Amino acid sequence: MKKKFFATFVLTCAACAMTTAAMADVTVSKCFTDNAVFQRDKPIVVWGKADADEEVTVEFNNTSATTTACKQGNWKVELPACPASFEGKDLVIKGKNTLTFSNILVGEVWICSGQSNMEMPLNSWGQKLKGTDEPRLACTPEEINGDYSYIRFNRPVHAIKTEDQFDFDSPGWRVCKDGVQKDCTAAGFHFAVRLHEELNVPVGLIDSNWGGSNINSWIPDDGWNQVPETVDFGKQIIGMRPEMKDYDKPGGMYYAMLSPWKNYMFRGAIWYQGCTNAGEKEFYYYKQKAMIREWRKIFNNGDFPFYWVQLAPFTAIKDDPNDTGDWPYLRNGQTMCLEVANTGQAVIIDAGEVDDIHPTNKFIVGNRLALWALAQIFNKDVECCSPMVEKIDFEGAKATVVFNHVGAGLTVAQLNERVVEETPDAQLNTFAVAGTDGKYVWAKAKIVDKNKVEVSADGIDEITAVRYAWQMFPDKPNLYSKDGLPATPFRIKK
User: Fold this and answer.
1) Does residue 279 have a pLDDT over 90?
2) How many Å apart are CA 358 and CA 317, to the nearest integer?
3) What per-residue string of b and e applies to 354-392 under the rule 16 or more CB within 10 Å gives b?
4) Potential cystine with 109: which of 7, 39, 95, 269 (Cβ 3.0-4.6 Å)?
């Protein structure tokens, strides 16, 4: 009996010693790994865990800061802001142990979040082009194999949690070269390339997204109180959370995949989501507004810029202008959200693929998102907003649509892969008007001034409503600004 007791005692002591040694190690989350990118011109915030009252020193770029872990073992330091730099530097964290992370750059850092069209990597998940053995890429072969070392991405592994997390599972920050970029968000990659070309800085992407996700999964619990229209809905689904499958739990993806980043400094966020919520139509506007407000309250970056992608066309082209489906209404909800300050919308109504919910032209997506950042944040002389309706003058059998954000003026054009080409002799498509019976018919439309389009239709003596590109998959919408941006879909009643 004594021998047995002694053996048990030794094992217990050894276990205690191992626990104490493990707790002595300073740790950080996978926000901090080799190849990371820090946000330029903002303080560099580093945090982690250690023993209670343990002294921790953090060094980067010839500066350092020292703090003491609190009774719960948490610590956080703030280092001075740095200018952009392509020179890889070490981040050193010293406590009872030392952590060293190498090849860290300073540049622009952006959150890239949403569902599958943001998650879609450059290699399109390894899919093949229909009927061929050719890879279905969301880029060129040169881009998927080239050296883009100035772009790094950190993609959290899919997970669901119901409260804030310290850490997440991830391969860490990865460098876009030697084909590694095949796993990077395609929309984010093209966004990053454009920013680099214009700003000559490194770009880091927090590549946190999940295909098929509902916006509910990205809204923290308190976010539902940000907008009066979402309060009751939020209470209802939070109350149902224990009975829900993990994937459907409200806030689950935010807590698991974004909350660990809340102290990390970044410039802004780009967002591509909405397909899963299409049946909610314009109510999506309230949800997205609530999410933006809550993210801005939580993240350590103030009222950061938030840019999203309006849903691309999907399903098949329908001949009947009254056969609209739900997506035009959700797109309109997205447009309504432009009322929130410091936001922007990339309209890609010209970049869909029939019966494919994942169009491969993510070049146009990333570049149109980048225009907002370049114009709003960096004061570049570029037009970022697609033409939008300012008003409609109804005059019996004719209606004149007046647009704003027309830049150099309206034109007829079409998207040819990555380039918008003017086609001035072509007829304008996808305009529809309704008469007093409320039924829509396809309209004749022509540009009559820099910012005006005149519409009419045979057999309609009194126009009561006008729509443009108001279908799940509008057939070749071709009204653009001369700056190459497609007009925003709309519906306006008299």
Assistant:
1) yes
2) 16
3) eeebbbbbbbbbbbbbbbbbbbbbeeeeebbbbbbbeeb
4) 39
Give the per-residue pLDDT at 12.
37
Residue 286 near residue 249 (C-beta atoms within 8 A):
no
Distance (Å, rounded) from C-alpha 182 to C-alpha 364? Answer: 18
Interval 340-384: pLDDT, tens: 999 999 999 999 999 899 999 999 999 999 999 999 999 999 999
Decide if pLDDT at 18 tops 90: no
475 secondary structure, DSSP code: S
The residue type found at 53 is: D
Q: What is the 3-state secondary structure (H, E, C) of 422-448?
A: ECCCCCCCCEEEECCCCCEEECEEEEE
Task: Please give the structure tokens belonging to residue 364.
Answer: 């146009």
CA dist list (Å): 258 to 154, 252, 272, 385, 426: 11, 10, 15, 28, 47
HSE value, Cβ hemisphere, 13 Å, CA-based, for 253: 23
Name the average pLDDT for the chain: 95
What is the C-alpha separation between 138 and 185, in angstroms, rounded? 10
Answer for the pair 415, 481: CB distance below 8 angstroms, yes or no. Answer: no
